Amino acid sequence: MKKRTLAALLCAVLLLGGCSGLLNREYSLVTVHSAAPTVDSDQLTIRVESYQDLVNALIYFINQGQETGTIRLYNYPYDVELDLEGACAEVSQEDPVGAYAVASIRCSVTPIVSCYEANIQIDYRRTPEQVAAVIPVTGASAIRTQLREALAAYREEIVLRLSYFDGDEEYLQALLREAYCSTPETALDFPRASVRFYPEDGRQRIAEITFAYQLSRADLAQRRQELDRLAGQISNQVWDALGDEGLLSVRQAILETAEYDPEGGSTAYHALAEHRADSLGLAMAMSLLCRRLEFPCLIVEGTVDGTPHCWNIVSTQSGYRHLDLSRPPETEGVSPFRSDRDMFQAGFRWDSSATPLCGEQPEV
Fold first, then answer.
1. Which residues, 6+ apart, have CB-to-CB distance to 231 below 8 Å?
2. What gap in Å lies between CA 54 and CA 64, rounded to an integer?
3. pLDDT tens digits, 52-82
4. What is the pTM of this model?
5. How far is the C-alpha of 14 from the C-alpha of 24, rounded, in Å?
């Protein structure tokens, strides 16, 4: 199997993420409540001497999935019952796992000879399996990777533990869009996503993301199989074409089977199987075939004359260039590969900071 020149650049381009790689903020890992509590040999009794020890003890019980436990407070100089109440509230409301998994924490305090003994009872709203399935992630790239894998498998839910996170639901929705567009071979039904944070604020949170698809899993599997078959047929037809000729061959093959329709479908399946697609559907088809043929290619989501529109950026012999399959040249001999300046002058707008430079800088 022959290798395409500049194929290595594809990985670098695609690392921009999703449709246009708009969000690449990275974070450092911050560990909260890292102190390990002193646990007695029965594994159910913890010794504490401070309020933070109380918090750590409760978190320990939760992380172990324990429904009951005992805390012994030695040399405790503060109001034991008041601090226990505060620690229970903090852990169940502010700690990510506590906010996600715990329904309530109850405690009773008994003074004994040398200490206070607090008996803890924890009621959960999540199963141990659900807690174990939470995926720890740090940074935009890691989040996007997990979202991409969930979408490719058409999962209905994914739960992420976000470290040092300062985003919001809109930010996650944007990463989801990028993840979806980055895998055109599985991007067959963009789901409606609902996001819930535990806790609602803070830089350490759990994000519960649920997906609602319009198509059934069986329909998605059938479409994926058919798309793979059609993409394989076209790839075999143009496999020997290299460089710009190869890109033009891919473009021509798509335009011979798909008609541009602003009201058409938005996936490569719509373009190659139903023969009618909007600008995103055509861009998805181009991206899919370029990936199979090892041509660097990405999808750009922007606007033209203020209307949402999608197209591709490909690597040509002259450098990166824009390629819009919905607007083939009307003049014989005019190249479909356009520079940033060409696109800008034609009314296209996009986040140029997230895409490779394509020829001349546009005159703003």
1. 185, 268, 272, 288, 289, 292
2. 16
3. 999 999 999 999 999 999 999 998 989 999 9
4. 0.82
5. 12
Helix (H, G, I), strand (E, B) or coil at 291: helix
Phi, psi dihedrals of residue 266, rounded to the nearest 5°: -115, 25
Cα separation of the two ends of the chain? 44
Tokens of 137: 């992630």
Chain-centre distance for alpha carbon 121: 36
The CA R_g of the chain, rounded to the nearest whole Å, is: 27
Q: Is 135 helix (H, G, I), strand (E, B) or coil?
A: strand
What is the per-residue pLDDT across 89-103, written as a single tens digit (0 to 9) for each? 999 999 999 999 999
For residue 146, the one-letter residue type is Q
Q: Are the CB atoms for 131 and 122 separated by under 8 Å?
A: no
Which segments of 49-178 are extended strands (E)? Answer: 68-73, 102-111, 116-124, 135-137, 157-162
pLDDT for the residue 114: 85
Sheet containing 157-162: give its strands across.
Answer: 135-137, 157-162, 205-212, 192-198
Residue type, 145: T
Q: How many residues does the chain have?
A: 364
